[in-house]
Amino acid sequence: MIAAVSLFLIITFSVLITKICTIALVHTGLSEESAKFQSRSAYTGAGLSTSETENIMNHPVRRKIIYNLMLIGNAGIVTAMSSLILTFVLPESNASRLYGLLIIVGGMLLLWFGIRSSWVNRGLSRIINRMLKKYTDLDIHDYAAVLHLKDDFKVIEANVDSDGWMCNRTLQELNLREEGITILGVHRKGSGYFGSPSGTFMMLPNDVVTIYGKSDGIQSLYNRKKDYYAQLEHDKFVEKEEERIVSDKEKLKTQADE
């Protein structure tokens, strides 16, 4: 029975640890879904190789979080397996084994409902956030909230194609701000990263651009080639952005009148 209780406690601590690491990764600028995926991968030792994993390994704070999580995960999985084996090997009677099984099943169900509960998740997140702010020097920012990554807004990275509409044109010529699209930065091989580039900055082939804007506008931008239809697409999204601005002004006016 002691082994069964130990197994339940180990799994509970494992869930708590991955939750803490997920929130810590979110504070470094990673999206919640990516942070959750990377935390679980590191804890279980899945070791999946993705572009997101490269971003984590190139970030000193994220790398430290994942490194510590991998060490804890190795110890936790071994201990959990040992406790599971002892739960059914040590007891001399079937009744004791049954009690151990009931503790494990009941504990797992309780833990599952706790994980699925939005109330528990919000409360736990607030506590972890408060502890991280108080006892760590993490850069505490929820970038998804800061950039308002909802209502179809998003941030992506994409390459500039040699035959693309953006290639060999300055930001001033592209005039993307009129479409509601903002260039946050450009990474150029051999030259480094250019943050918040000015209007005279020219896009070159294979530049990796970080873009903020509406999903449909960004998708349209990267589908455009150097032809007549590209300008038509630009004009269409400029018109859509103007309509959005007018709509936002009307909302503000209505709120002010109320």
Automatic annotation (TrEMBL):
All residue ranges annotated as the RCK C-terminal domain in the record: 142-227
Keyword RNA-binding: no
Entries under Gene3D superfamilies matching the protein: Regulator of K+ conductance, C-terminal domain
MF (Gene Ontology): monoatomic cation transmembrane transporter activity
Transmembrane feature ranges: 6-30, 65-90, 96-115
PROSITE patterns: RCK_C
Key words, A-Z: Membrane, Transmembrane, Transmembrane helix
InterPro entries: RCK_C (IPR006037), RCK_C_sf (IPR036721)
Domain of life: Bacteria
GO biological process terms held by the UniProt record: potassium ion transport
Protein name, per record: Potassium transporter TrkA
Range of residues in the leader sequence: none
One matching Pfam family: TrkA_C
Keyword Transmembrane helix tagged: yes
